[in-house]
């Protein structure tokens, strides 16, 4: 199983637009072969030590894929690439980390 954590920082005043655009693609992505989870999470002010200060523009996409090939297929999908091209100008930055489940 593959886990993806995609951290997104919306430009000031664009978070709601980014979130709306994300929600539009969720059903199509979740229906893809190999997609086990594809969800959006927003920053929570927890008060826990070590957590960065609350930032309303921080979002995270949490993904689970059956295997790396399913993730690669998703990322190469023209529909996803079109979405990504449209949302990128609304972002101040983004990063993606990919992990493999170790079992146990």
List the helices and strands and how they pair.
Elements: E1 2-10, H1 15-30, E2 35-42, E3 58-65, H2 68-76, H3 78-87, E4 91-100
Word description of this protein:
With about 100 residues, the chain is an alpha+beta fold. It is about 35% helix and about 35% strand. It has 3 helices and 4 strands. It has helices at about 15-30, 70-75, 80-85, and strands at about 1-10, 35-40, 60-65, 90-100. Strands 2-3-1-4 form a 4-stranded antiparallel sheet. The radius of gyration is 14 Å and the shape is globular. The model has no long low-confidence stretch (mean pLDDT about 95).
Mean pLDDT: 94
Number of strands: 4
Q: Segments where pLDDT lies below 50 for 5+ residues?
A: none
Distance between the termini: 13 Å
Précis, in short:
With 104 residues, this protein is an alpha+beta fold. The chain is 34% helix and 34% strand.
Features:
single chain; 104 residues; alpha+beta; four-stranded antiparallel sheet; globular
């Amino acid at each position: 199983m593959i886990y993806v954590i995609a951290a997104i920082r919306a430009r000031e005043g664009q978070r709601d637009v980014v979130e709306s655009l994300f929600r539009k693609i969720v059903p199509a992505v979740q229906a893809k072969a190999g997609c086990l989870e594809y969800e959006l999470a927003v920053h929570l002010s927890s008060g826990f030590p070590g957590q960065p200060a609350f930032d309303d523009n921080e979002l995270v996409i949490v993904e689970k894929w059956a295997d790396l090939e399913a993730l690669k297929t998703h990322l190469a999908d023209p529909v996803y690439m079109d979405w990504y091209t449209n949302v990128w100008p609304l972002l101040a930055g983004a990063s993606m980390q990919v992990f493999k489940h170790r079992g146990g």
